Amino acid sequence: FGPSVLGTREHWDAAYERELQTFQDIGDAGEIWFGEESMVRIIRWLEKHKVPLDSSVLDIGTGNGVLLVELAKSGYTNLTGIDYSPSAIQLSEKVREKEGMSNIKLKVEDFLAPSAELSGFDICIDKGTFDAVSLNPVDAAGKRKLYVGSLGRVLKPEGFFLITSCNWTKEELLNEFREGFEILEELPTPKFCFGGRIGNSVTALVFQRK
Q1: How far apart are CA 40 and CA 9, in angstroms?
Q2: Is 180 helix (H, G, I), strand (E, B) or coil?
Q3: Helix axes 66-73, 35-48, angle to 10 degrees
Q4: Residue ranges covered by each domain of the chain
Q5: At what angle do helices 9-26 and 86-99 cross, to 10 degrees?
Q6: What is the pLDDT of residues 10-49, one digit of tens each?
Q7: Chain centroid to CA 182
Q8: pTM for this one?
C-alpha cells in the first residue's frame, strides 16, 4: 500500500471536526473502527486472561473514545486515551461526559513523540493507529520505527499490546514488532473467501513486551 491522506494529521483533524459537529447536532459518536466486534474481541481477551480491573490501559489513537467507554462499562478503572487530533479528544470528552464516565483520562498526545508522563502502562491497545502511521506520505518506514520505540517506552516489561490492523498480515506485524516484543496469540477475526482462497480482512494480535 502506498502513501495516503489517511496517514496525515490534517485528514484526521478535519474528520473529527465533522464528527464533533455531528455529535453536537444529533448525539452520534461516529464510526467505530473495525466495528463493535473488535471491541468485544479485546474485552473478551482481557476477561479470559483475568487481567485485573485496575490495570493501567492506554488506548493509542482513541478517536471518539468509545472503546474506553466500553472498557469502563466492563469494570476497568484505570483508562487513558490519547490522540494527536485535538478534535478527536474534544469528541471523546463529550462522549465520556454523555456516558457519565468521568474517570477516563484523555490527552492530546502524538504517540510518535510521547511526553515523559506517558509511561508504565500494563496494557496498550491499537485499533487502526499503526495502520494510519503506515500510510503517512512522509517517511512512513521511519515513523513505524518511532512507533515501535514509543511502545517500548510506554508499556511496562511483560505488559500486553493488543493490535487490530486491516493493512498488515500476521507475518508482517511479527516482523514490524520483532524488536522487544513477542507474539502471544492471534485473535479470531472474520474470514472471507476469494478465488477459492480464504483470508482475513482484519488481523488482531496480542504481543507481550520482553
Answers
A1: 28
A2: coil
A3: 40
A4: 5-209
A5: 30
A6: 777 777 777 777 766 666 666 665 668 889 999 999 999 9
A7: 18
A8: 0.86
Number of Cβ atoms within 10 Å of the Cβ of 16: 23
Query: Do residues 135 and 6 touch, judged by C-beta distance below 8 A?
Result: yes
The identity of residue 139, as a single letter, is D
Q: Which residues pair with 105 in a beta bridge?
A: 80
By CB neighbour count within 10 A (0-12 exposed, 13-18 middle, 19+ buried), where does 20 fall?
buried
What is the assigned CATH class of domain 5-209? alpha beta
- State the cell numbers at 23: 455529535
Cα distances (angstroms) measured from residue 110 to each of 91, 94, 166: 17, 20, 21
Q: Rounded to an integer, what distance in angstroms lies between the CA atom of residue 29 and that of residue 91?
A: 8
**Type of residue at 31:** E
Count of CB atoms situated within 10 Å of the CB of 42: 25
CB distance 148 to 184 below 8 Å? no
